[in-house]
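Look over this one:
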Amino acid sequence: MSPDPQTLGVVSKWVAGQADAIFTDIEDLVGLETPSTDKPLLSRALDWLRRRTEQVVGPPDAVELVDGGARGDVLVLTYAGTGDAVVTFLCHYDTVWDAGTLADWPYQVDGDVASGPGVFDMKAGCVQAIWALAAARATGLTTPTVRILFTGDEEIGSEASRASIERFAIDSDLVMLFEPSEQGRVKTERKGIGRYYVAVEGRATHAGAHYEEGVSAIDELARLTVALHGLTDLTAGTTVNVGVVAGGTRSNVVAAAARAEIDVRVARQSEMERIDAALAAIEPHDPRARITVTGGWNRPPMERSELTVGPYRIARDVAAALGRDLGEIAVGGGSDGNFAAALGIPVLDGMGAVGGHPHARGEYISLSGSIERIVIAAGVLGAVQARGPRELR
């Protein structure tokens, strides 16, 4: 059950009245650069997020700060609801942009379009999460308990934050990600991601005088590259890409060493198993060579199922009550939602900014789209509580 159009109208009016503050927050957060590997800059932005959330929503009922080591810390702000359901917001505040990017690409607004490093992925989404909760509480919606997780290493694999994400997701009725939308649509399917590294050991010799005594690591890696690319199955949604290769010393020396970095994307658990079996079966062409494969799966696939389609339907119905059409889409990239879905938790992914060009110069958002998504997210909170705990599973 979604909030009725009249109630959503009240929410919309309240959010519209906060538009200037929301847009200022987006600008301020983009102005705090947060490359994934710069802990001091990440900490500065996290302090801003905590302070601003408390200003906008009010004092949280519980606060937990999880040390991320060399990576960004995890901040968990819990706001007790008026109902008994639990919703966890996932928001990462790190970006792919290096410190100093703002110097030649500052935040700028042209009409309804705002651009700047990280504004789409996903600074605007962080701000939207804060204001969505504020809107639900300020307009009297019956809301679930909401936990906002701000994480600082999503762009580099979430190794420091994964345990926290899974710990807080496991008892949630819904995990809502304020990752950016894709073509304005929420994401009901994401691929799993594997990152593998191959090291080949051969034997160096003179390439002319003693060629036959050598063992070419480059030859082994070339043969292996063809075999790995042969594992790609586009029909099944699986791609295997050897994206980085290096090896050898000089053209007149048989290469003693070579290495490669491999990206694997799969849409199904069964494909993960097939790739695992293929990698485990790798043998060198020349028995004198040695091949070592390291790495593994960074994220399991988030398959399209009732765990993702059910929450999408709720958001779609809320959008429809506002006179908006909200679509769904499958994407090749992964997110922290993959972890939650693998635990059997309902996931609503892509509730963040409407815009485009993530990770690229020209990354942008629609400001009016951010306002609209805040209203939809607030409506989803009301709808989840109306259904009651565990009803989405």
Observations:
- Residues 4 and 321 are 7 Å apart (CA to CA).
- DSSP finds eleven helices and 16 strands in the chain.
- The longest helix spans residues 367-387.
